[in-house]
Amino acid sequence: MTNKKILALGATGPSGIVLLRELLHRGHSTIAYVRNPAKIPAELLQNPLLEVVHGQMDDEEKLDSVVCRTSIVLSILAPVATSTPDPAQFQSYFTNLIASMKRHGVKRLVTLNTLSSPDPDDKFSWTASISVFFVRNLINAAYRTVRGIVDVVKKEGQDLDWTIYRVPILSGDASAESWNKDRQSGETYAGPIGGKGWKIFLPRALLASWLVDCAEGKHTEWIKKMPAISLRG
After folding, report:
1. Which tens digit of pLDDT belongs to each residue from 147-204?
2. How many separate domains does the chain show?
3. The domain that contains 122 carries what CATH number?
4. Measuring CA to CA, how many Å separate 147 from each of 14, 34, 88, 188?
5. In which order are the strands placed within the sheet that holds 161-167?
6. Gene3D superfamilies attached here (predicted)?
7. Is the pTM of this model over 0.85?
């Protein structure tokens, strides 16, 4: 029986906090590696299953110190739409993360991406196409960042059991009330963009549930694949 923990990255945004709620609800010992611990709600900080480590994206030594104590990495890291991200910074971060995982024999990486990163199995969708058009033209740095993350994971993570999950428009907030309501709001779709049942919306609570399922050994059919995740229509 392993005593290693689940490593959550990007755990201070709304989706990340909802992920922490789901992990702790299911009884998982979790490390949240974050830049701003103050963003995590007090009731979660008080949970003995949660360890919060304050660290920066480019602090390789600090990152290595948490990766070595984990069995899987669940990442919700993504550029913020209201900022101008540096694609090279995110690529460097994932390069360092993957190198650390290899050093410590951590095989499983489940990491966030968006509709801007295509997959050969995708079907045509007007809503997805319009969304990608606006991202590419209005927040091009974010567009280049998420596509760069895919390139790094595929190139550097060939020895890992990675899954790059692509999210549409996310709904719900970080509150316990929203999480508890939305986690029972429907079924989760996983598959190509535009496939039967795919929708342009996804409650954060359903995403969190799907991610924790991955941590519990489910959804292995998506290893080395890029499923689009949504509320099933």
Report:
1. 999 999 999 999 999 999 999 999 999 999 999 999 999 999 999 999 999 999 999 9
2. 1
3. 3.40.50.720
4. 22, 23, 11, 24
5. 50-54, 30-34, 5-9, 70-75, 108-114, 161-167, 228-231, 188-191
6. NAD(P)-binding Rossmann-like Domain
7. yes
